[in-house]
Amino acid sequence: MSVGQTYPSFSSFHKSGAPPEQLRDYEPLAKTCSSFVLRLFAHPSALDHNRSPYEALPYFIAVALSQSRLPDINALAALTLLQRLKARHPDRFFTGAPVPQCIEAERLFLCSYIAATKVLNDDRYGLQFWVRVGQNKFPLAELVKMEKKFLADLDWRTAIDDATLATYEMILER
């Protein structure tokens, strides 16, 4: 599946066959975020298959957005941090080792979402909140390590200016 192709229906990832109505509200933003992550970090060879290892990524992101109930701007800020990470590490791609590629993508999005939320919000969300947002896929200790590594890879440069956010908002509105 190439990045430009459509993703499978959210229904195929939900146990009952139909996702909760609230997930449909997050589907466009989740698909945008997923495409962005994959364009930056997925190795092109992983996207050339009929069944991409990343096809569940938009669903993971939609559930994360739904669970967090944070403003959409937080997800856009997460994308700015991912863009910055790629600029600092242009040769970084998902490798599939030691964890599956989709898990790498989920980790990266979740870490960027956590960091962006901390930058934008004065409210402090506890680690258990983020474990829930990550759908309990990442235990607390692992989440702490993931976040520290993400921030170190960014050289702790997490400031996001209003002009950059405005640019991402315009892109999303298209």
TrEMBL record:
It comes from the Eukaryota. One of its GO terms (cellular component) is cyclin-dependent protein kinase holoenzyme complex. CDD domains: CYCLIN_ScPCL1-like (cd20557). One of its GO terms (molecular function) is cyclin-dependent protein serine/threonine kinase regulator activity. Residues 1-14 have a biased composition (Polar residues). InterPro entries: Cyclin-like_sf, Cyclin_PHO80-like. Residues 1-21 are annotated as: Disordered. PANTHER family: PROTEIN CNPPD1 (PTHR15615:SF108), PTHR15615. This is Uncharacterized protein. The lineage of its organism: Eukaryota, Fungi, Dikarya, Basidiomycota, Agaricomycotina.
